[in-house]
Amino acid sequence: MDPTPAPPPVESVARLRWLLAASLGLGMAVAAPLIDKVVWQPEFVDTARWLGHFHPFILHFPIVLLLVAMAFELARLPLLGRLLPRPDHATVTVVLAWGATCCTLALVCGWLLAQSGGYEPELLGRHLWAGAATALGANLALVLRLCSGRPGTGFLSGVANLVLMATCVVLTVASHYGASLTHGETYLTEQAPDCIREYLGLQPKRKTGVLVVKPLDERQLWADVVQPILEERCNSCHHEGKSKGGLRLDNLAALLKGGASGAAINPGNPKDGLLMKYLQLDPDDEKHMPPKGKPQPSPAQLAALAYWIEAGAPPEKTAGDFDLPASLRASLESLLSPAQRQAIEAKTQAEAKTIEASLAALRSNLPGHLTCVVPGHPELVYAPGNQFAAVGDEQLSALAPLAGSVVSLELQQTKVSDAGLAALAPFSHLRSLQLQNTAITDAGLPHLAKLASLENLNLYATTITDDGLQQLACLKNLKKIHLWQSKVTAAGADKLRAAIPGLDVNLGLPQTPETSPATPSPNKP
User: Fold this and answer.
1) How far is CA 123 from CA 273, 286, 311, 446, in A?
2) For a FRET experiment, which of 165, 188, 224, 380 has its CA 20 to 30 Å from that of 149?
3) Upper half-sphere CA count for residue 503 (Cβ side, 13 Å)
4) What pLDDT score does 373 carry?
5) CA dihedral for 352, 353, 356, 361, sign (positive or negative)
6) pLDDT tens digits for 487-520?
């Protein structure tokens, strides 16, 4: 008789192995949320980070297996059993066993990934606890199922099914917190229909089309140009809940604050901030952002970011507030898709038709010419032509319905008075104003001081004095002013230049010895 004992049945060996794996998973599920951040030895840091990055790769597998195991058990219900296939008990056990084991692996990798930092602590804690509860429930359900006399039958298997059902509920919570870490806490609501957002007490979602129907000069550099670029290229790793390197780019305040490695941007100097530095590194450089394999910013987007930073990172200024180089204007226009350009053109044409209807009524009673600067675009210029003697305060007031569209007024030699200039208050986009050879005095200049967009002002051959001129010191966008043959002195002009840096003050041609009148020679003795 052979004294060697017979090997245990294969089923018993497999059950012991799964019980051992489940016991290990239970221990890790309890320990993971309780262990504080570990100070790794230098030689293990890179290995720990590398293993942590397998978390998103592994976690989808146990999600599917646990849900499949739950679906298989639900298929045993009398009603569903007629509609769905009924797998045998062993198949359900194997699916649950692999699901529980993969839950343990995902938990370990997720814990290692959390050690690298860069996540919002409170949200990370919720995800870690929910993930640990999922692993705990999956392994506990497996232990209960394996400890029953016949897996799938009996009291313990019934309890195991209840635990598995509760685990699947916790699994959805853990998944939600994980997605919030990756995509932001609003990932479920930001694209929700407005009716659902209203039910949840949220504001209607931002219409992306609202941004693109603005003509270029009306777009805010931050809100309409820079922020959409960052949302598209950077926010997946630098947002609320997930701030790699301690850096968030989902709002202006966080961008200006910077991250753990220093300032993201230095307003006024695009080369002195980490944002542009990392964006412009060689794609093969490990510090290049966005990481290789992710969509990269286009040259036009990089040009827009650099210009905004160089301009001082203004929060509200529009493209029209700057004298943009032609190349940059072309870059900003290129950021739009053909459909977006068509939307802008359609809006512009609709506005032009409305203006043309208003122009037709005005032109019949208004001397001179009222025309669009560019045909089809709602920017207007008014010039009296050779009928300047027929233009006065009444005609200036008649332009009020179109005040927001008028960018240039040529009122030279007209009968416009100081009092009539009060009608210019609503001309908020007026850039050029010609008042040469009119009766305008210092008394009318307070009305001109309200024209914040004014860039070119002609007061040639008027009675303006030094005292009156200083009332225009608030016009910071003023680039050129003509004062030849007025009563303004060189000292008054210098004072205005000091108040408005870069202002070109034209006082006429300086007198030279060649142009000065001859001085009589003294009588000879």
Assistant:
1) 29, 28, 36, 57
2) 165
3) 26
4) 80
5) negative
6) 999 999 999 999 999 999 999 866 444 444 444 4
Alpha-carbon dihedral sign for residues 165, 167, 169, 171? negative
End-to-end CA gap in the chain: 161
| Per-residue confidence (pLDDT) for residue 407, from 0 to 100 | 93
Identify the burial level of 208 via C-beta atoms within 10 angstroms of its C-beta, where 0-12 means exposed, 13-18 middle and 19 or more buried. exposed
Cβ neighbours for 379, distance < 8 A, ≥ 6 positions apart? 372, 373, 405, 407, 429
Q: Between the CA atoms of 466, 467, 469 and 474, what dihedral angle is there, to the nearest 10 degrees? A: 140
From the number of C-beta atoms within 10 Å of its C-beta (0-12, 13-18, 19+), residue 29 rates as: buried
Backbone angles phi, psi at 117, to 5 degrees: 80, -175
| pLDDT at residue 42, as a whole number | 62
Residues 91 and 72 sit within 8 Å (Cβ to Cβ): yes
C-alpha–C-alpha distance, residues 234 and 164, integer Å: 38
Collapsed DSSP state (helix, strand, coil) of residue 295:
coil
Which residue, chain included where needed, has tokens 């692999």? Answer: 98
How far is Cα 390 from Cα 144, in angstroms, rounded to an integer?
100
Structure tokens, 206: 């931002």
Q: How far apart are CA 466 and CA 458, in angstroms?
A: 15
Partners of 383 in beta bridges = 369
Distance CA 200, CA 193 (A): 11
Q: Are 131 and 105 in contact (CB under 8 A)?
A: no
Is-contact 74 165, C-beta < 8 A?
no
Q: How far apart are CA 38 and CA 29, in angstroms?
A: 17
- The average pLDDT across 457-464 equals 95
User: Are residues 138 and 25 in contact, defined by beta-carbon separation less than 8 angstroms?
Assistant: yes
Contact 135, 103 (CB under 8 A): yes
Residue 125's nearest CA partner among 178, 172, 184, 171 is 178
d(CA 162, CA 156) in angstroms, rounded, equals: 10
Residues 210-244 have pLDDT tens digits of: 444 577 788 888 888 888 888 777 766 766 655 56
SS3 240: coil
Q: How far is CA 321 from CA 206, 221, 317, 416, 453, in A?
A: 24, 10, 6, 29, 9
Asked if residue 422 has pLDDT above 70, the reply is yes
Cα separation, 159 vs 153, in Å, equals 10
| Distance from C-alpha of 15 to C-alpha of 524, rounded to nearest angstrom | 134
* Residue 331 DSSP SS3: helix
User: d(Cα 195, Cα 75) in Å, to the nearest integer?
Assistant: 36
Beta-ladder partners of 434: 410, 458
Nearest to 73 by CA among 63, 84, 58: 84
- Separation CA 360–CA 353 (nearest Å): 11
Specify the amino acid at residue 525: P
